[in-house]
């Protein structure tokens, strides 16, 4: 079918053109929002003198009935009617004669932009909850293994000992920023295009304030041309989603690495792993791998939409119809990734002993020895050299820095060798690592036992 019936056209579009341009199979997802927009528009048209009260009421009842049918899966979508808007309008008009007046002062251009914004606001509020649930799972895992130490890495080489909970809370921080970005995107989406018409508003007296209030938008758009062609709000959403996807991918990667035999720090619950069709012994972290893999798609969707928008002349162009599939897929992919990741994290068992063993390697305290020399007055660059030389010497002698002995340290550190012993000597390696964490208690944001406990408590409270 053509726009609103034939009119300007003598015949039907070529079947290939109709098939190529139809969107109802994916934009029917906007049905609830389209109906909501139509009810508000009908109510406003009474004030504009276009509909009688009775007509508006019958239209709203008709729209309600259609909504019920859709929710019950009984509505018959027609491919021949191109998109969600034409399907719903045509179904309404078939039932309610006044339905033919509903599209007064409205275009599918301001309609689809309004629908998308309504959809996005709802979508984001669900995303925020899903992000919060993953944060909760991470904090919970941190609480459960609150005393466990593991090596912190740079360049994937062991750096310094940290607490497991500190590592997990790093992701909680990332997800909090993701929430902030999506929250901002929702704020920017909270502007109502309806009333902008095709591009230049209307000669009829549309009271946009009435529709705004009914649809619970924060404000109405100020420029009709901008309003029908703007998809910034979707780009912002996709950018936030892509970045959240990148964070999920990094979390997945850490857990995949840590669950390998080479690290042996964590074990996913069986329900979140798969076997191999060939190798009977395998237990593969497929869920985490898929989360990592799907993040590629999220980045792709952002680039897709930016590329669609680039170079479009004002105002509406049909290219804009290409916004929906990438946005819907991004939303679904993020949501399912968050849900499965939260459960997979919940299922994790940490091997505290394997972590502590790795974290107790004395080399991880090399920086702390340098800090001790600094406290005794040695310039840091010199301290760095002294400890570096000690590591080399230990390597040459086939031993470890905590077994070099006082005289070796004395000759390297010239009078300060005792200090190295204080960091490296005495107690067991695990106790030493623990002491090293405790020594960080005066630095905000560092993984001291007390600092991390405090952070865990704060997050638990915040995420309640
Ligand atoms: N299906 C269209 C879209 O998503 C709706 C708007 C169509 N407007 C038009 N003038 N052809 O963009």
Explain what you see.
The chain has helices at 15-21, 24-27, 31-47, 53-71, 84-95, 108-144, 164-189, 208-215, 224-229, 232-258, 286-309, 323-346, 352-359, 366-375, 380-397, 406-413, 417-424, 429-438, 449-462; strands spanning 149-154, 157-163, 191-192, 219-220, 266-267, 349-350. The chain is mainly alpha-helical and 464 residues long. The chain folds into three domains: 15-104, Fumarase C, Chain B, domain 1, CATH 1.10.275.10; 109-357, Fumarase C, Chain A, domain 2 (Up-down Bundle), CATH 1.20.200.10; 361-427, Orthogonal Bundle (Ribonucleotide Reductase Protein R1, domain 1). The protein has a two-stranded antiparallel ribbon. Helix 6 (108-144) runs parallel beside helix 12 (323-346) and helix 15 packs antiparallel against helix 16. The longest helix is centred in the first third of the chain and has 37 residues, at 108-144. The protein is elongated, with a radius of gyration of 31 Å. The chain starts with 14 loop residues before the first helix and ends with a helix. Bound molecules: arginine. Arginine is lined by residues 23, 27, 83, 108-109, 112, 316, 318, 320-321. Arginine binds at residues 23, 27, 83, 108-109, 112, 316, 318, 320-321.
**Rg from alpha-carbon coordinates:** 31 Å
Q: Give a quick account of the main beta sheet: strands, pairing sense, barrel closure.
A: 2 strands, antiparallel
What is the CATH C-level name of the largest domain?
A: Mainly Alpha
Question: Count of helices?
Answer: 19
What binds here, in terms of ligands, is: arginine
Our count of domains comes out at: 3
Low-confidence stretches: none
Run of helices and strands: HHHHHHEEHEHEHHEHHEHHHHHHH
* CATH architecture title of the largest domain: Up-down Bundle
């Amino acid at each position: 079918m053509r726009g609103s019936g034939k009119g300007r056209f003598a015949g039907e579009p070529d079947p290939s053109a109709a098939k190529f341009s139809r969107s109802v199979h994916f934009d029917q997802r906007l049905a609830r929002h389209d109906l909501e927009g139509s009810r508000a528009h009908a109510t406003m048209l009474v004030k504009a003198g276009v509909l009688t009260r009775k007509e508006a009421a019958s239209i709203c009842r008709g729209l309600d009935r259609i909504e019920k049918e859709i929710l019950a899966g009984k509505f018959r979508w027609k491919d021949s009617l191109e998109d969600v808007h034409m399907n719903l309008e045509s179904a309404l008009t078939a039932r309610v004669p006044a339905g033919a007046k509903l599209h007064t002062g409205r275009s599918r251009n301001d309609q689809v932009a309004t629908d998308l914004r309504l959809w996005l606001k709802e979508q984001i509020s669900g995303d925020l909850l899903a992000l919060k649930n993953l944060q909760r799972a991470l904090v919970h895992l941190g609480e459960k293994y609150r005393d466990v130490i593991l090596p912190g890495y740079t360049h994937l080489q062991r750096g310094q000992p940290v607490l497991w909970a500190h590592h997990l809370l790093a992701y909680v921080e990332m997800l909090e920023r993701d929430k902030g970005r999506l929250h901002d995107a929702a704020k920017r989406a909270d502007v109502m295009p309806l009333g902008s018409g095709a591009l230049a508003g209307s000669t009829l007296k549309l009271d946009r304030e009435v529709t705004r209030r009914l649809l619970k938008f924060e404000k109405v758009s100020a420029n009709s041309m901008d309003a029908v062609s703007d998809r910034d709000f979707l780009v912002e959403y996709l950018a936030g989603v892509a970045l959240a996807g990148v964070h999920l991918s990094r979390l997945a990667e850490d857990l995949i690495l840590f669950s390998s035999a080479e690290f042996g720090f964590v074990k996913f619950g069986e329900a979140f792993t798969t076997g191999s069709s060939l190798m009977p012994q395998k237990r593969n972290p497929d869920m985490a791998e898929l989360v990592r893999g799907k993040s590629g798609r999220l980045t792709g969707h952002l680039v897709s939409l930016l590329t669609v928008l680039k170079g479009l002349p004002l105002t509406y162009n049909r290219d804009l119809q290409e916004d929906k599939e990438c946005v819907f897929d991004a939303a679904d992919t993020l949501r399912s990734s968050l849900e499965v990741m939260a459960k997979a994290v919940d299922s994790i068992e940490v091997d505290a002993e394997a972590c502590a063993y790795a974290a107790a390697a004395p080399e991880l305290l090399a920086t702390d020895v340098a800090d001790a020399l600094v406290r005794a007055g040695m310039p840091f660059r010199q301290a760095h050299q002294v400890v570096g030389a000690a590591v080399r010497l230990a390597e040459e002698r086939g031993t470890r820095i905590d077994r070099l002995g006082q005289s070796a340290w004395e000759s390297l550190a010239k009078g300060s060798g005792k200090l190295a012993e204080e960091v490296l000597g005495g107690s067991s390696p695990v106790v030493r690592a623990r002491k090293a964490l405790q020594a960080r208690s005066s630095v905000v944001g560092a993984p001291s036992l007390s600092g991390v406990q405090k952070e865990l408590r704060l997050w638990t409270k915040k995420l309640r």
